């Protein structure tokens, strides 16, 4: 297995020009290591296996809470809009 190539740049940004077919991974400010796409994918999969994924129950509970809060917020803003609309209509004598 070959060694990674260090490339010095003046900023954290995209891979240097001419590094077609390689991914640049930032090590520290201004330094990149060229990694083959296959190695990059292998490393990503290894890191994904380390993730503690939420349980199905936790996911459903969180989804339910988000939907409930979105529903409550929509009702709240609907009511506020209606009250402000009523006040504007009364103030300017519109709509009846």
Q: Which whole number gives the mean pLDDT?
A: 80
Strand composition percent: 15-25%
Shape, please? Answer: elongated
Structural class: alpha+beta
Series of secondary-structure elements, N-terminal to C-terminal: EEEHH
Helix amount: 40-55%
**End-to-end C-alpha gap:** 82 Å
Count of domains: 2
Q: Stretches where pLDDT falls below 50 for ≥5 residues?
A: none
Q: Largest sheet, described in full?
A: 3 strands, antiparallel
Q: Which terms would index this structure?
A:
alpha+beta, SecE_bac, 53% helix, 3 strands, membrane, three-stranded antiparallel sheet, 2 domains, elongated, Protein translocase subunit SecE, protein transport, transmembrane, 96 residues
Write the layout of secondary structure elements.
Layout: E1 5-8, E2 23-28, E3 31-35, H1 37-50, H2 56-92
Antiparallel strand pairs: 1-3, 2-3
Question: Explain this structure to me?
Answer:
The chain has 96 residues and is of the alpha+beta class. The protein has two domains: 5-50, no CATH class; 53-96. It contains two helices and three strands. It has helices at 37-50, 56-92, and strands spanning 5-8, 23-28, 31-35. A three-stranded antiparallel beta sheet has the order 1-3-2. β2 and β3 form a beta hairpin. The radius of gyration is 27 Å and the shape is elongated. The N and C termini lie far apart (82 Å). 2% of the residues are buried. This is Protein translocase subunit SecE. Keywords: Cell membrane, Membrane, Protein transport, Translocation, Transmembrane, Transmembrane helix, Transport.
């Amino acid at each position: 297995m070959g060694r990674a190539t260090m490339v010095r740049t003046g900023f954290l940004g995209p891979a240097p020009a001419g590094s077609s077919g390689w991914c640049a991974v930032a090590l520290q400010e201004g330094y990149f290591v060229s990694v083959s796409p296959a190695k990059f994918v292998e490393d990503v999969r290894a890191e994904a296996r380390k993730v503690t994924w939420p349980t199905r129950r936790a996911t459903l509970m969180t989804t339910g809470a988000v939907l409930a809060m979105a529903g409550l917020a929509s009702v709240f803003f609907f009511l506020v809009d209606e009250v402000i609309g009523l006040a504007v209509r009364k103030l300017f004598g519109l709509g009846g």
